[in-house]
Design goal:
2 copies of one chain form a homodimer. With 384 residues, chain A is of the alpha/beta class. The first copy, chain A, folds into 3 domains: 68 residues, Arc Repressor Mutant, subunit A; 131 residues, ATPase, nucleotide binding domain (Nucleotidyltransferase, domain 5), CATH 3.30.420.40; 142 residues, ATPase, nucleotide binding domain (Nucleotidyltransferase, domain 5, 2-Layer Sandwich). Helices cover 41% and strands 19% of the residues of chain A. The first copy, chain A, has 11 helices and 15 strands. In chain A, the strands form 4 sheets. A 5-stranded mixed β-sheet of chain A has the order 6-5-4-7-10, sandwiched between helices. In chain A, strand 4 and strand 5 form a beta hairpin. Chain B binds a DNA duplex (30 and 30 nucleotides) through helix 1 and helix 3. Chains A, B: Belongs to the ROK (NagC/XylR) family. Chains A, B: Keywords: Kinase, Transferase. Chains A, B: This is Sugar kinase of the NBD/HSP70 family, may contain an N-terminal HTH domain. Chains A, B: InterPro entries: ATPase_NBD, ROK, Tscrpt_reg_IclR_N, WH-like_DNA-bd_sf, WH_DNA-bd_sf.
DNA sequence: TTGACTTACGAAGGAGCGCTTCATTAGTAG
DNA sequence: CTACTAATGAAGCGCTCCTTCGTAAGTCAA
């Protein structure tokens, strides 16, 4: 409804160009006839459209497919390499970066370890190194990149300023968007990491195709990301998904059950304790099993709140502990069934550690699509 | 993004027609020049567009405004009366109906009392009487109406079947949409009453203009309605907003604090007890004040869950008890401030008892707008 | 009442975009 | 080598919007 606007003939051409681009992005290389049919245009018209798109660098010809009847048809494909996107995951211990083409196809990935208590400069330098590494790996220059999309823990306000970050002390009150704009001459997007992970699941993970998704980040810290109507739901102050802050939802202290389980041998480093408990539960250790049960019991309360409030199509279990989804998913389902009106589908994430970087890329692709296909902004967003 | 599609010249005209309609709906009667400017068209083109719209019955001329410089300009207005919408609120004790024009301007309203335990036939007959009354009052015929939009308590599935309704026994498992289609030859919409009330607040009430709104239905029964991105959020199985089902959210039994307050004289009918307590608290009765405090304490938990999860722009306090918002709103705000990361604006509903009927109308208008302005469906949705 | 000024109207001519049609071309199948 | 298939490219048409310009219908001031 927002993007109905009138205009002259050139607008029609713009619309048809975008339709063509979209069809090519979705369905790979297409012949002129196929493209024309999909877009509802005649072939001669579509020819002009593709000619223009080729001139502008959005589309290129590929060799015709062989072995077909009749004269071989030209085929066109979207030039996903006419621009590039960078995704970054700023975690406590690691900074991951990835570079992708405009389709979100990942072309290079790097990782830079960083101490959680590293001062600001060190952390920013690590980001710069990670991104530079990606560019070098894929032989891409700064000018080839259009957008950088960053995910980080904590609450980031609408302007890209870090409001709150329990895990990374140096991060608090930082104008992250400003820093990034200083470092890179690209459009800057910033989002909370749980929301980006949710995005990744909804676009290429186990929740592909679902419009309303609740993503549970279960790990040493708890978090949640919401996809509503196929889009990241940030909330008015970019503070959505913070159910962990509500004591009655019992998320905040839930991981304690796993960390302090009596089965864990003394001297286990704290970051390994939960993993140990989960493994022990898998192997039948009754003490560990009980700890996991208490954990899931708490986890279920906050999760039920989200399910009851939103009635999502799917709940995805992600985050560090989701490697133990075999021990967690079934008990969680049982407890939710007792609490919820309508049970959503429940699945475990399969994307692993790259899930936030990948989500950052997907978020950028989504953003780009909006810019391209929301016909409001600007004349026509085609470049050379 | 979903509604970018190519097309020929007629599509451009369609786009421009819709733009004109939208401008006229939003900004009242406009001259040709004003209209052309808003739509970004030249005057001659806009003239043709309006000519066509007048031929089709969507638009009509009004007398030119006087006292202006230069030759008086023709003015056009959207003919909101070229179609009508019916809204119905099926409550436990009352059935309300309203008839509006396409702008949602209410032209007639009726109310039919009905016993909560009335059998199905009686209830359906009351609906029919209420609607017929509206038509008679406004001298509208069945053929003038396009759509009926119904709000009712309980959970209604996506197909319009009542899944669950604690308050109205006869309602359970009813194919309400089917019944309504049998009764009226109109397009049928069904929604939960809390969601419709939320819609009313977001379109014409205290939350006007807000995109993300949490509406609290506080009364003898508790409920919630969500507006996300300016639209009613139903959830995948139309079961959103049911936080009352979660014991830990402490909504379900919250009204008990008001009903069983020691200040209430013996013999007070149960439906008046809460009102009595709230009034007593307003007058400074310490026992009642304490009961209200306990009530708000519980109310705040479920509300905080919604605010933390969604981070809405605004929370609206509605439902029967919202008449006592002066006693409730401030304490609720205090408790939320202690729990939430970012405080949403908080307001009390002002729409009163008609809020659900009005919301039903607004929902229908919204739906109509979607049909009109989502350029996908059908050729061009213009009628005579 | 008249003349200057302002603003809208309506008709004419032109440009851009998409459509249909048809002869031509480049393959495969027998 | 011929028949068949399917895409190509050019020509001509119609629709929608644009610009331009002379005309019409008001207000304002003398």
């Amino acid at each position: 409804m927002a993007d109905v606007r009138g205009g002259d003939l050139s607008r029609l051409r713009q619309l048809n160009s975008l339709t063509a681009i979209r069809a090519l992005r979705k369905a790979g290389p297409l012949t002129l006839s196929a493209l024309a049919e999909r877009a509802g245009l005649s072939r001669p018209s579509m020819k002009e459209v593709t000619d223009e798109l080729m001139r502008l660098g959005w589309v290129e010809e590929v060799p015709p497919s062989q072995g077909t009847m009749g004269r071989p048809a030209r085929r066109y494909r979207f030039r996903a390499d006419s621009g590039h996107l960078v995704g970054v995951d700023i975690g406590g211990h690691n900074i991951r970066a990835a570079l992708s083409d405009l389709d979100g196809e990942i072309l290079a990935e790097t990782r830079q370890p960083v101490r959680p208590d590293a001062p600001l400069e060190e952390r920013l330098a690590a980001i710069e190194r990670a991104v530079a590494g990606c560019l070098a790996l894929s032989r891409t220059t700064v000018a080839d990149v259009w957008m950088i999309s960053v995910g980080t823990i904590g609450v980031i306000d609408v302007a890209g300023r870090v409001i709150y970050s329990a895990a990374v002390p140096a991060w608090r009150d930082l104008d992250l968007a400003g820093e990034l704009r200083r470092m890179f001459p690209w459009q800057v997007l910033i989002e909370n990491d749980s929301r980006l992970a949710a995005m990744a699941e909804a676009r290429r993970g186990v929740a592909r195709g679902a419009r309303d998704v609740v993503f549970l980040h279960v790990g040493r810290r708890m978090g949640a990301g919401l996809i509503i109507g196929g889009k990241v739901h940030r909330g008015f102050g970019a503070a959505s998904g913070e159910i962990v802050m509500l004591p009655e939802a019992r998320w905040f202290n839930a991981p304690e059950h796993l960390h302090t389980c009596a089965s864990v041998p003394a001297g286990t480093p704290p970051e390994d304790a939960a993993g140990y408990t989960l493994a022990a539960a898998r192997n039948g250790d009754p003490v560990a099993i009980e700890a996991v049960e208490r954990y899931v019991e708490d986890l279920a309360v906050g999760t039920a709140a989200m399910v009851l409030i939103l009635d999502p199509q799917m709940v995805v279990l992600g985050g560090g502990f989701s490697r133990s989804a075999d021990v967690l998913l079934e008990p969680l389902r049982e407890r939710l069934e007792a609490r919820c009106m309508r049970m959503p589908e429940m699945r475990a994430s399969t994307l692993g550690d790259e899930c936030v970087v990948v989500g950052a890329i997907d978020y950028a692709v989504n953003h780009l699509d909006d810019q391209l296909f929301t016909t409001d902004n600007g004349p026509l967003p085609l470049t050379r």
